[in-house]
Amino acid sequence: MFSDAFHLTQAVLDGRKTQTRELKYPAKSHPNKSFKDLTGLRFGKLIVIRRVYTNDYRRVYWECQCDCGKTAIVMGKLLKSGGTKSCGCLVYESKNVKHGLKHTRLYRIWSGIKHRCYCKTSPCFDRYGGRGIVMCNEWRTDFMSFYNWALSNGYSDDLSIDRINVNGNYFPENCRWATAKEQSDNKRCNILVTLGNETLDLQQWCDRIGIKRSTVNTRIKMCGWDYERALTTPVRAHKKYKERE
């Protein structure tokens, strides 16, 4: 850019007297520059107070009063385009969690669900988001909605969130708070066994009948029994040996 007075380089090289020429208008005035008066208009949280100056590029700057009480100098183009809506306080407010629960266990659970469902770099993404499992929009966009649901549906610090249908989504109707044992009984890798008209997970049958899971596994793998026989056949009592005197 040229300054208000510039020297002709060729005149200097030729040894002639350096010629100068003043710009017709100073950089800060531009009297013929037309612009729309924004005084008194509101843009977001800003109300325009007055025109401050016009720069070398003939861009008009305005002094604005923000709703938070601060003032800011903003280029008119940014005001009209919506690029600037505050003195900067909006950015600060957006970075702060208003509910004050960011360091709670429920917030970590909520963040963990979103991470494994939507973050492709998550180690768990293949088992969740990669299989099409998502979080309901109400929970995803509003932590307090998830928080209120949790407190009204039996949440406690010794329970974790569990999907009733392991192939379903994180929706209120498909979620519950479960113990570690209930979680382990509700996995995709679990074996469902039907006895009579009732279907339960293999471990649940073992708990009900009172037989060890390892015993059932041995009967099936080593003896070739089916699940019904392996579960319903009584366990033979071990021979008691006489203690040595």
What does this structure look like?
The chain is an alpha+beta fold and 245 residues long. Helices cover 30% and strands 18% of the residues. The chain has helices spanning 9-13, 76-81, 89-94, 105-118, 137-141, 143-151, 180-184, 202-209, 213-221, 227-232, and strands at 5-7, 20-22, 42-43, 46-54, 60-66, 71-75, 160-163, 175-178, 192-195, 198-201. A four-stranded antiparallel beta sheet has the order 3-4-5-6. Strands 1-2 form a two-stranded antiparallel sheet. A hairpin with a 2-residue loop joins strand 3 and strand 4. The longest helix is centred in the middle third of the chain and has 14 residues, at 105-118.
Secondary-structure blueprint:
Layout (H helix, E strand, L loop, with lengths): L4 E3 L1 H5 L6 E3 L19 E2 L2 E9 L5 E7 L4 E5 H6 L7 H6 L10 H14 L18 H5 L1 H9 L8 E4 L11 E4 L1 H5 L7 E4 L2 E4 H8 L3 H9 L5 H6 L13
Antiparallel strand pairs: 1-2, 3-4, 4-5, 5-6, 7-8, 9-10
Q: Which features characterize this protein?
A:
four-stranded antiparallel β-sheet, two-stranded antiparallel sheet, 10 helices, disordered N terminus
